[in-house]
């Protein structure tokens, strides 16, 4: 990435004008389901001084019979709640035709694993003025992820944040295999910021604390975690979403360990 340009990429702190360079935390439900749930989470994030809320409005589901997301109604809820609690918003865009609409409502366009090599979507995101969170494809190599980022950059958008979210291997104990070495390799070879999505890589909550610390020790710029006030009622990814108490526990663990690192 950026082999043709000498200019350095902005850090996440620079993109959003954040007061300090501590690792960023992106948290929120898998999907927007209603305003009450999102407000509960937003209030919690605000209390903890977390700046980024995530929530899907267009959900790329494996089965067409599963909940597909609230679409524009979901974007509106996300926008309004985030405004009330002064949070930056991240949501996935799955179609070139929606980039403009999604950009009207949210701060960061997420391109999900299933669309990492949707080149027309990458080009459209490149023409957007919104920062892009680009997730690693389910079976994508690090090189392919870097090439996908290059699509966004050469089309005019240098504010790209990469996201390692695990890849498919023969291992079945986790939902995907987290490739932690992607973090220092991406940083070294591209200079782009990179965060790690703990929820979609692990698919389980019981080991999330130790992996969060490992990821931050590897100098990831941040983490993404799915959080839901009532995970057992969630319409998607119910098993991997933390409730607020579990999330609080994760935050304490990170705070204890980050000071040591
Ligand atoms: C998500 O973050 O909502 C998501 C669907 O993740 P991924 O694209 O990594 O599977
Ligand atoms: Mn999810």
UniProtKB/TrEMBL annotation:
Annotated GO MF terms: 3-deoxy-7-phosphoheptulonate synthase activity; aldehyde-lyase activity; chorismate mutase activity
Keyword Cytoplasm: no
EC main group: transferase
EC number: 2.5.1.54
UniProt keyword Transferase, yes or no: yes
Any single biological process term in GO: chorismate metabolic process
UniProt entry keywords in alphabetical sequence: Transferase
Protein name per Swiss-Prot or TrEMBL: Phospho-2-dehydro-3-deoxyheptonate aldolase
Organism name: Ruminiclostridium hungatei (Clostridium hungatei)
Residues of the full protein shown: 95 to 355 of 356
